[in-house]
Amino acid sequence: MINVQHVTKTYYDNTSALHALNDVSFTILDESITGIIGMSGAGKSTILRALAGLVVPDSGVIEIDGQTIHEMNSASLRELRKSIGVVFQGYQLLMQKTVFKNIAFPLEIAGVDEFEISERVKQLIKMVGLQGKEHQYPAKLSGGQMQRVAIARAMATKPKILLCDEPTSALDAITTKEIISLLSTLNKTEHVTIIIVTHEVGIVRQICDNVLVLDLGQITESGDVRTTFENPQASITKLLLGKEVSL
């Protein structure tokens, strides 16, 4: 289970302060799929990076399976990160490496032996439907294929949690449907908890069990997707859904 309590994060520059997260609290159950939606600049990516241990909150607590991330020593945090896969916005593939090598990369970093790496990568390539693409380079792949590589790489270490930052933002409607179907399948077959940051309400409708609505660094509404979207309470939720907002 993921438990976030009263998390705050502010970024400063020479002239101003940006309150990316302001007293954010929520809980995510194991093996669920949760969508985090909001306008640009709402703080969605900051939440995702905090969950991955890439951003340290100014205050508050982030617990994963009862362990407080930012109280861990370096060795414990490295071990925890093996259980968290991240699909970054824009794929973030290693362009000089083949599909096989991209997927193998986190396993190589983890010190897994060559035979195990080969077997796991073959399994992942089949899992995400990239048979025959093993020795191609990212530049030769379509956007959907590159996203499949990114998902396979994120799943390489058999994570318990998969964090996805705008996983379909650059994809057409048909490819988006395929990627959403793949994520849904991974949730069921690999028992992975998935958190999707997106501005696309339709994706949340299709795949997510629960939704968090974020506005200006605060959660304005949360709950199961059907109830929240059928009877939105917050103005930002209504705006995202295209419903009329009373002024």
Task: List descriptors.
single chain, 247 residues, alpha/beta, Rossmann fold, 9 helices, 10 strands, 36% helix
3D structure, described in words:
The radius of gyration is 18 Å and the shape is globular. Strands 6-7-8-3-9-10 form a six-stranded mixed sheet, with helices on both faces. A four-stranded antiparallel sheet has the order 2-1-4-5, covered by helices on one side. It starts with a strand and ends in a 6-residue tail after the last helix. The chain has helices at 44-51, 74-81, 99-109, 114-127, 143-154, 173-189, 201-207, 225-230, 235-241; strands at 2-12, 17-28, 33-37, 59-64, 67-68, 84-87, 161-165, 193-198, 210-215, 218-224. Helices cover 36% and strands 26% of the residues. The chain is an alpha/beta fold and 247 residues long. The chain has nine helices and ten strands. The longest helix is centred in the last third of the chain and has 17 residues, at 173-189. It has a single domain, classed as P-loop containing nucleotide triphosphate hydrolases (Rossmann fold), CATH 3.40.50.300.
Can you describe this structure in just a few lines?
With 247 residues, this protein is an alpha/beta fold. The protein has helices spanning 44-51, 74-81, 99-109, 114-127, 143-154, 173-189, 201-207, 225-230, 235-241, and strands at 2-12, 17-28, 33-37, 59-64, 67-68, 84-87, 161-165, 193-198, 210-215, 218-224.
